[in-house]
Amino acid sequence: MSYQEKRNLFNIVVSSIITVIYFIIINTKFQNGAFDTSNMLRFWAVVILIFIPVSVISRIIALILFRIYGAISDEVRGEKEDRDVIDERDKLIELKSNKVAQIIFILGFIGALFTLLFNASVSVFFILMLASGFVGELASNIMQIVYYRRGF
Fold first, then answer.
1. Stretch (H or E) spanning 81
2. Both ends of the chain: CA-CA distance in Å?
3. Which phi and psi (to 5°) does residue 48 adopt?
C-alpha cells in the first residue's frame, strides 16, 4: 500500500473517530440540558463553531503522529519513502476527488434547503449540512484510494 493510500485511509479513520466522538459528547450534553435550546439557531452556531477548531486541531495532531510513525517505520525497515514529492498525477487525483466531495456537499446543501422549504426543523437542516460535509470528505478520501489503486 502506497503512502498516499495509507494517508487517505488514516484520514478516513481519524475523521470518523473525531466526528463520532464530538457528536456523542454534544448529544450527551444536549440530553443533560447543558445547552440553551430556546434558540435552535444559536445552539447550532455554538455546536459548529466549537466543532471547527476541535476538528482542525485534532487532525493536525493526528497528522503529526502519522508522520512520526511513518518516519519511525521507515527507519526500522531501513527504507526511505519520499512523501513530500507531489507530481501532476497526485494533483489530478486530488482535484478529481475534491470534485466528488464538492458535488456531494452541494447535493446535501440543496437537500437541506428543501427541508426548510417543507417546514422541517432547523436541526434537520444543520444535521443534513454536517452529514453531507462528512460524507463528502469520506468520499474524497475513498476516491483518492481508488484512483491510486487504479494507477490513474
1. none
2. 15
3. -75, -40
Q: What 3-state class would DSSP assign to 117?
A: helix
86: three-class secondary structure by DSSP: coil
Per-residue pLDDT tens over the stretch 121-136: 888 999 999 999 999 9
| CA separation for the pair 22, 27 (Å, rounded) | 9
> Which residues, at least 6 apart from 42, have a Cβ–Cβ distance to it below 8 Å?
36
Q: Which three cell numbers stand for residue 1?
A: 500500500
The residue behind cell 432547523 is 122
The C-alpha cell that represents 37 in the structure block: 435550546
Q: Mean pLDDT over all residues of the chain?
A: 90
Residue pair 99/143 in contact (Cβ under 8 Å)? The answer is: no
DSSP 8-state code for residue 115: H
According to DSSP, residue 119 is labeled: T
- Tally of domains in the chain: 1
Instruction: Return d(Cα 93, Cα 74) in angstroms, integer.
Output: 25
* 53-110 tens-digit pLDDT: 999 999 999 999 998 988 888 888 887 766 777 888 889 999 999 999 999 999 999 9
User: What is the span of the domain harbouring residue 109?
Assistant: 3-150
